[in-house]
Design a protein that fits this description.
Length: 218
């Protein structure tokens, strides 16, 4: 298991002020803004267990799916922003809960689940993030309507939320976590297939598996 010793970390206020400077440049220079946003994504990652690059891996998986879906440049930017910031609200969630090696109690699960709306409310002040916020808010919704925070189902869930959900789950499954050892890629793919149509949008699962298999074969 990884060593979870905290490194010197930025304060959340510093992250928010960097974020504010970066998002204000998204319109005029998205390429540079995204480069800077990825640095902020790293700073966010350092704030939250498991500090292993989760945000940025999820972002890269999302962009692979976007490519398959034929997203235009603008749609890709929105998705990338949402993916980098999807777990922003985990900053400040009790680390002892996030690092539990056992199954969480329902109260603890509820605590962790709060990260969705925390992130949403903290970032809601940025006009430039309006579209991305839809993905941040909906990345734990389930295709069959059993997710949170709103219990949306199928196409009610914004497409970028459905994309992040698949990328996020695959990365969590294939990474070591205090409560499980990393699954192999094929075990994780099997799990995505099992949850296709329940937790996940079947089209996104199909496209993601196509991309990931191509990546594995390379
Ligand atoms: Fe999340
Ligand atoms: Fe996540």
């Amino acid at each position: 298991m990884r060593n979870y010793k905290p490194r010197a970390r930025l304060h959340i206020d510093e992250i928010i002020s960097c974020l504010s400077a970066v998002v204000s440049t998204l319109q005029e220079n998205p390429e540079q803004a995204l480069k800077n946003l990825r640095k902020i994504g790293k700073a966010i990652d350092d704030q939250v267990p498991y500090r292993d690059g989760h945000n940025l891996r999820v972002t890269d998986y999302c962009l692979m799916i976007a490519q398959e879906l034929g997203f235009d440049e603008n749609e890709k930017v929105v998705l990338e922003v949402a993916a980098i910031l999807h777990d922003f609200g985990k900053i400040g969630i009790d680390e002892n809960i996030l690092l539990q090696p056992r199954k969480l109690t329902s109260e603890e699960k509820e605590q962790v689940g709060l990260h969705v709306m925390r992130g949403y409310y903290i970032l809601a002040g940025f006009n430039e993030l309006i579209e991305a916020l839809k993905g941040i808010k909906s990345h734990h919704e389930c295709y069959d309507g059993t997710g949170y925070p709103e219990g949306l189902s199928r196409e009610e869930i914004p497409l970028i939320g459905r994309i992040i959900a698949v990328a996020d789950a695959y990365d969590a499954m294939t990474s070591d976590r205090p409560y499980h050892k990393a699954l192999t890629k094929s075990e994780a793919i099997a799990e995505l297939k099992k949850q296709s149509g329940y937790q996940f949008d079947p089209t996104i699962v199909r496209l993601f598996i196509k991309c990931i298999k191509k990546k594995i074969e390379k």
